[in-house]
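Input structure tokens:
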């Protein structure tokens, strides 16, 4: 009898632990969490507060890798994850802002490869992931995680675009439309040339692709626990070195690409060294005081 009771207890304990693990990984434990209230905390200049909480991340659609043109399902599975309250740059980092960092010896020199992209208020293009990481660190910030970037772009309910579910066009984002790149200009525009999203962020779709912190995984299922739960940071927990991983993620589409690349769930992998070279940009993030560890 004692042995039977012991076995039943062990089985029950195992089942309970398994259920708790799934509960935590799904982010559903967030219902009991307390997040910093954006209205009650000081927001750094040039940034906006993104409220913490659970949100719908990813999708189950089949898409195309913008580098290889292979069909992929790297946004799957659609699931609920959670982020703490954080701050995000209102705009993409501009050419002039990046050059100030270079002059201060906080960043290595970098610049666009073509003419017409170096006006002071155009987004900084042509940086690799390490340049972006250095700049954010110099500015007292960091790159946003992939989950933070998607929450900032899609809101809590997983809307398709930063403005909702209406299809992207040139009234909402600087993209290629009807074969015309940059909405007819052929280049990026000054940051903030289109209306902001629900959180007051500009150019979360189009204008410039944006590097995020995470290493790329073939999909969220293969990534497993590091891509689930609360404040996921991707493969290797977001460490600067991640054996077996050479690609980071860029988000948001650009002036060169059409509307499909501006979907808030769209993921584009590319080598952290930015070789082969592409005109990628970035913006920075920062943890809120109450969630900083």
């Amino acid at each position: 009898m004692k042995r039977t009771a012991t076995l039943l207890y062990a089985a029950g304990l195992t089942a309970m632990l398994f259920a708790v693990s799934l509960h935590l990984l799904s982010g559903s434990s967030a219902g009991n969490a307390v997040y910093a209230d954006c209205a009650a905390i000081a927001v750094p200049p040039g940034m906006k507060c993104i409220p913490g909480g659970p949100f719908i991340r990813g999708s189950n659609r089949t898409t195309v890798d913008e580098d290889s043109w292979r069909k992929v399902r790297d946004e799957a599975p659609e699931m609920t994850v959670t982020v703490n309250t954080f701050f995000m740059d209102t705009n993409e980092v501009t050419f002039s802002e990046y050059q100030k960092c270079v002059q201060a010896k906080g960043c290595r020199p970098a610049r666009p490869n073509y003419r017409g992209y170096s006006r002071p208020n155009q987004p900084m293009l042509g940086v690799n992931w390490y340049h972006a990481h250095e700049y954010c660190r110099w500015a007292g910030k960091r790159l946003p995680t992939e989950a933070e970037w998607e929450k900032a772009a899609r809101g809590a309910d997983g809307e398709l675009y930063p403005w909702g579910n209406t299809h992207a066009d040139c009234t909402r984002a600087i993209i290629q439309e009807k074969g015309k790149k940059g909405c007819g200009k052929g280049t990026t525009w000054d940051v903030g040339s289109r209306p902001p999203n629900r959180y007051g962020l500009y150019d979360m779709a189009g204008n410039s692709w944006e590097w995020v912190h995470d290493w790329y995984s073939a999909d969220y299922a293969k990534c497993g626990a590091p891509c689930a739960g609360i404040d996921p940071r991707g493969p290797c927990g977001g460490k600067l070195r991640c054996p077996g991983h050479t690609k980071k993620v860029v988000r948001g589409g650009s002036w060169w690409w059409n509307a499909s690349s501006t979907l808030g769930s769209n993921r584009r992998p590319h080598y952290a060294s930015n070789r082969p070279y592409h005109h990628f940009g970035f913006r920075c993030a920062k943890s809120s005081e109450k969630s900083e560890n």
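The beta strands are 47-50, 53-57, 63-64, 71-72, 79-83, 86-89, 210-215, 247-251, 268-271, 285-287. Residues 1-31 have pLDDT under 50 and may be disordered.
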